Amino acid sequence: MLRKMGEAVARVARRVNETVESGSDTLDLADCKLVSFPICIYKVLRNVSDQIHLITLANNELKSLTSKFMTTFSQLRELHLEGNCLYRLPNEVSGLQHLRAIDLSRNQFRDFPEQLTTLPELETLNLEENEIVVQLLPVTPGPHRTECPLQLGA
Fold it and tell me: Which PANTHER family match (predicted)?
């Protein structure tokens, strides 16, 4: 078990270092067995966090994201959180004014994350395979929203 944990930690460190060294706008921490977003990553990425436009945290075991995550990566355009254990988003997600796509499929949402309705650039929202009971979806501003694909339920 310790060996597998060590391998997962090494994988995270390698991927974060690759992002910093290459100046990439992408941070891929998919399939890293994360139960939370590692605090040390904020320090390592502090000089490049504004340049990161895509983060993939798919297929981990995340139960929540902090407000610090949302404020640190405020320039995100895509956020992939599918295949985790998330049931809500922090209110600070409404600060992701450049976010165009968010994948929240295969999580544990029971309520529609209404903070997302305030995001002016959001085009794609995937909520497939959650536990959301659709009664009345909030109205989203702007005419471009009417053609936005919304995937709910299993």
Answer: PTHR48051, RAS SUPPRESSOR PROTEIN 1
